[in-house]
Amino acid sequence: MHKEEHEVAVLGAPPSTILPRSTVINIHSETSVPDHVVWSLFNTLFLNWCCLGFIAFAYSVKSRDRKMVGDVTGAQAYASTAKCLNIWALILGILMTIGFILLLVFGSVTVYHIMLQIIQEKRGY
User: Fold this and answer.
1) Which residue among 14, 37, 50, 112 has its CA within the 20 to 30 Å range from the CA of 27?
2) What is its main location (predicted)?
């Protein structure tokens, strides 16, 4: 054996000629886009002042449709609008419900005082 062949046999092939093997795994992460359908349905059924709950429900369904098609950006846009409408529907619903209860209580007290005054005037004659 020649001296050069002996070196190649002992040392092996040069490192630059050996290609490292690698495996690439692509993982598609599905980003979870909340579509707020349950919240919109609740606002539609119970706190539907000014029809905001119904409009929020429509945007939630659109968001779900966009998510099923694979349009994540469109789903996020519709979900954001639905969330904003749901927040406003909830705030207005709570305020209007409290206002209606206060109006009912104060109205009842006023009617009671008027009726009491009428009864006292009748007795006075």
Assistant:
1) 37
2) membrane
Residues 49-89 pLDDT 10s: 788 899 999 999 999 999 989 888 999 999 999 999 999 99
Burial of 40 (0-12, 13-18, 19+ CB in 10 A): buried
Q: Give the CA angle between residues 58, 60, 66 to the nearest 5°.
A: 105
Residue 37 near residue 66, CB atoms below 8 Å: no
H helices of the chain, in order, are: 3-11, 37-46, 52-69, 72-124
Instruction: Give the dihedral sign, CA 73/75/81/83.
Output: negative
**Rounded Cα–Cα distance for residues 56 and 88 (Å):** 10
Helices 37-46/72-124 angle, 10° precision: 20
- The structure's pTM equals 0.65
> Under a CB-based contact definition with an 8 Å cutoff, are residues 78 and 55 in contact?
no
Residue 103 C-beta-side C-alpha neighbours within 13 Å: 6
